[in-house]
Amino acid sequence: MCPSDSQNDAATQSTAQKTGLKRAMSTRHLVMLSLGGAIGTGLFLGSGEVIAATGPIGAILAYILGGLIAYMVMLCLGELAVHMPVSGSFGSYATKFIGPGTGYMVTWLYWLTWTATLGTEFTAAALLMQEWFPQVSVWLWTLIFAATVFILNISSTRLFAESEFWLSLVKVLTVIAFIVIGLCAIFGLISFNGAESAPLFNNFIHDDWFPKGAWPIFTTMLIVNFAFSGTELIGVAAGETQDPARNVPKAINAAIWRLLIFFVGTIVVISALLPYQEAGLNASHGVSNSPFVTVFAYVGIPHADDIIRFVIITALLSAANSGLYAASRMMYALSIKQQLPQVFSKLSRSGIPFIAIIVTMFGAVPGLLSEQFAAETIFKNLLGVAAFTMVIVWMSICWSHFNFRRQWYRDGYRKEQLKFIAPFFPWVPILGFVFCFITGISMAADPEMLPGFIGCLIFIAACYLSHYYFYRHKTP
Fold first, then answer.
1. C-alpha to C-alpha distance for 319 and 226, rounded to whole angstroms
2. Residue 373 pLDDT > 60, yes or no?
3. Is 51 a domain residue?
4. C-alpha to C-alpha distance for 347 and 80, rounded to whole angstroms
5. 188 and 392 in contact (C-beta within 8 Å)?
6. pLDDT digits (tens, 9 = 90+) for 143-200
7. At what angle do helices 47-54 and 221-228 cross, to 10 degrees?
8. What biological-process terms (Gene Ontology) are attached (predicted)?
9. DSSP of 221-247
């Protein structure tokens, strides 16, 4: 056995013994966890925004670029997660390979990302349910959904993983059906909106290749990158995965390529069948005007709006389910490192950090107020906060991997001794970091997202200051 094998096996056993977390997830759970985190309302409702801003060809290029950035980040994460399959994931990696202050900041930032959006996910799902049942209060649906997600998380890791698998499967099957039906309509195999001839790809260049120039491709990258966020959940779950050395790399490769096909395929279908201006307008006026609903309705599928409404509700619940899991594991990781009281790392009999889950649920309360107080402003800034914090987390993954590999070489090991190798080092972590940095800075150029951007910077500074204070005044 080579040095890396013995070190990895010892680290895995040590982690399991210290934390008590159950290794209950398989490859299929990891893949669906990643797909479920990424496929959401951004695709079903927001995909048209990118098409409207960039044009069909520009949107395809933007999503391909976004997918490549996500793939570079996930390759870096894969090497780290296989070598160190721990709960806390990239927060722990940043602590070890960048610095304790950065690891502390990244962990809290990721907790903030999911906790801030939990309440909005519950509220949005409740509002959609009220369209079916107008006599039932939004608050009642909100409590029902919150209780359901809480029970799924508090019971066991296995139950959480299974629930996420089936919730994600609904979204995946819908996207596959949309792409297949759309391609049949494009090539005239089925009728579309009463047209006598096949639409083919005429809409692609009807208004020039880049009707608004090439610059919007870059200005929409924050939206596109956010669409791929959630893939990093594989790293969070590595500490609770069976045989992470085998399952984590398989899940990363499977998830990224499926996402790229799903996102690009969806954009191709929408762009080919709908004028880009119409796709954009539809994407911003609720479920009934989603580009998915429009295409399904033009093909002749009955109750298209009800179908997509159901799918979006499952997407919201899936995102909340994954978010509560990820945020609670971040809080648990801080407690294990003695940066939060030990009560937050207390486990139930089934190996669940139940105190961390309960506290994270209470952290979602501000998001529940989004519908009652300045809904559009709060939602826009929460979206910006979530996107920006995700970019910071991705940057930390690339930086951690860069430092890890350099340390690996300095210790006298060869890359062949790693169980999973991110290719093209050092270019993959460097390019991943640079592209993420550019994407994050672009948020400052959007006046509507500027308050969220400033708020994130203040939060980051507060994390560093509190970490410095904590260690300066820590009793031995």
1. 13
2. no
3. yes
4. 26
5. no
6. 899 899 999 888 877 787 888 888 888 888 988 999 999 999 899 888 888 777 777 7
7. 150
8. amino acid transport; transmembrane transport
9. HHHHHHHHTTTTHHHHHGGGBSSHHHH
| Residue 2, pLDDT score | 43
In this prediction, residue 105 carries a pLDDT of 93
Say if CB 226 and CB 63 are below 8 A apart.
Answer: no
Instruction: pLDDT band for 400, please (50, 70, 90 cuts).
Output: very high
Query: Domain containing 129: what range?
Result: 23-472
Instruction: Write down the residue that tokens 């009652």 correspond to.
Output: 372
Closest to 404 in 3D by CA, of 105, 14, 98, 102: 98
Give the Cα separation of 210 and 57 in Å (integer). Answer: 7
* 4 belongs to a structural domain: no
In a domain, 64, yes or no: yes
The model's pTM is 0.82
Percent of the chain as helix, strand, coil, to the nearest 5: 75, 0, 25
Handedness of CA 282, 284, 289, 290 (dihedral sign): positive
Residue 219 to residue 237: CA distance in whole angstroms:
32
Q: What is the CA radius of gyration of the chain?
A: 22
d(CA 168, CA 157): 16
Q: Please give the helix or strand (H or E) that residue 64 lies within, else none.
A: helix 56-83
Amino acid (one-letter) located at 254: A
The partner residues of 25 in beta bridges, in order of sequence, read 241
Amino acid at 69: I
Question: Which residues lie closer than 8 Å to 465 by C-beta, 6 or more apart?
Answer: none
Tokens representing 429 are 């972590």
User: Bridge partners of 241?
Assistant: 25
Among candidates 334, 314, 355, 27, which has minimal Cα distance to 161? 27
Number of domains comprising the chain: 1
Supply the DSSP symbol for 346: -
CATH number, domain of 424, equals: 1.20.1740.10
Nearest Cα residue to 328 out of 305, 347, 302: 347
Q: Show Cβ contacts of residue 369 under 8 Å, excluding neighbours closer than 6 positions.
A: 119, 378
Residue that is written with structure tokens 């945020």 in the block: 327
- The string of pLDDT tens digits covering residues 40-63 is 766 776 677 788 788 888 888 888
Contact 172, 311 (CB under 8 A): no
SS3 assignment, position 25: strand
Backbone angles phi, psi at 25, to 5 degrees: -100, 140
Per the domain annotation, does 16 fall within a domain? Answer: no
CB count within 10 Å of CB 371 equals 19
d(CA 321, CA 121): 10
Rounded to whole angstroms, the Cα distance separating 434 from 126 reads 39
